[in-house]
Fold this protein.
Amino acid sequence: MDSKILSISRYQVLSGSALKLIACLSMLADHLSKCYLCRFAWFRETWFTVLGRSVSAQELMMGFGRFAFPLFVFLLVIGFENTRNRTRYGISLFILALLSELPFNLMLGGALHFPVQNVIFTLLLGYLAMWSLSALKNCPVLSFAALIALFMVSKYLKADYGAAGFIFILLVYGLRREKILRCIAAPFLLASKMKVMLALMLTLLYNGQRGFIKTPFLKYCFYAFYPVHMLVVYWLSRS
């Protein structure tokens, strides 16, 4: 059989920017379905049946919404490996986590306080864990202690996706060179395993290119999308 047919490289058509756009659309679909569209009867009604199971628009959008976290984790790992300034990257994540907390609380709880912290805190702790593994690779005792400390911080903060999300980031990082194994093993840490697996299968199509997000303006527009879209969803839910 022609080796070109078997080669996955010919199908690698998604840039990092394309994956980021898919992740953002997935997150928007998830939040709209949970916090706004769920109030409409037509959204919950059956649209079609597959293998005897009724499928609604709500199920479709929430299913697509499960793609966001795995894709953002993959992009986090890629960003960690390729950034020229890990300190600045980490500070950017920290600032974004702080700025997103109020919109996150308003969207999910309708108040200034919500018991769970937004997912950027989860990504930040995972980023710090990857940094610890890289910087302390010659000192396994300190590296392990740092991971335990960050794990406990994640538990204390009640960061979104919890301990499973933190470990998921470490597993995706550890299997960053093992593409197929990553798609098979990592989903078992999260709920909606098949949807997470489908999301990770998209990463097999990553071509290693940055894509259209090249200017600082576009870069920070995508950063701003997270808190801004939550404020919009909150406004819609209150209207």
